[in-house]
Amino acid sequence: MGNIMEKLELTAQSMYCKKVEELNASELHLALGKAVMGEIAPDWSKSKAKHNKARRAYYFSAEFLMGRMMYNNLYCLGILEDVTKLLKKKGIDINVFEEIDDAALGNGGLGRLAACYLDSAATQEVPLDGYGIRYKYGLFKQLIKDGYQVEEADNWQRFEDPWCIRKEDEAVTVSFKDQTVS
C-alpha cells in the first residue's frame, strides 16, 4: 500500500510539479488513478499471460455504466480504506472525487448490464476483456437557462480517464455516408 502513495507523489510531481496536497480534484483523480494502475500493472500482466494460454472472451458494448470508478476500483482492489487514510494524512477528504463526473458511457440498462458481465467474469476468473467506444459527448445533460429547460451536449472527456487503456494502433475507421470516424 505504501507503494501507491509513493507512486502518487511521483505522479503528482512529474505530471503537475505539485505536491499531492496541492492538486485540485481533477488532478488528484488522474494522478491517483495512474498510481493505482502502476501498482496493479504487474499483476495484470501475469493474469493476462495466464489467461492467454486458454480460450478467452471479448465483450464489446457501446455502453458501460460502472459507477464511480475511483471508489469502485479502490473498493474492488481492497484498498479503499487504506487510500482514504493515506489521503487524510495529507489533509485530503476522499469525497473530493464527488466533484469528478465519471463518464457513464451510457445511462441505461444496457450499460449496467455490460458492467455486470465484466464484474461477474472477474469474480468467476473468466478471461474476459471489455471493449467500448470512446465517446466525446453523451446524449445530453439538462440545464435551466433563463427559466427554460435546455439540453447541452454532455462532454464525457472533460476529465481524463486513468482507467482506460487506449490502443490507438488498434483503432478502426468506420465510414458513414456523410462522415468518417476513427
Would you spell out the secondary-structure blueprint of this structure?
Layout (H helix, E strand, L loop, with lengths): L1 H15 L8 H27 L5 E5 L7 H8 L3 H10 L19 H15 L4 E5 L8 E5 L2 E5 L21 E2 L4 E2 L1
Parallel strand pairs: 1-2
Antiparallel strand pairs: 3-4, 5-6
Helix pairs in contact: 1-2
Can you summarize this structure?
The protein is of the alpha+beta class.
Categorize the overall geometry.
globular
The helix tally amounts to: 5
- Uncertain regions spanning at least 5 consecutive residues: none
Radius of gyration, CA atoms, in whole angstroms: 18 Å
- In what range is the share of β-strand residues? 5-15%
Number of strands: 6
What do these coordinates show?
This protein has 182 residues and is α+β, with helices and mostly antiparallel strands. The chain is built from five helices and six strands, in the order ααβαααβββββ. The strands form three sheets. A two-stranded parallel ribbon has the order 1-2. Helix 1 (2-16) crosses helix 2 (25-51). The protein is globular, with a radius of gyration of 18 Å. It starts with a helix and ends with a strand. The model has no long low-confidence stretch (mean pLDDT 84).
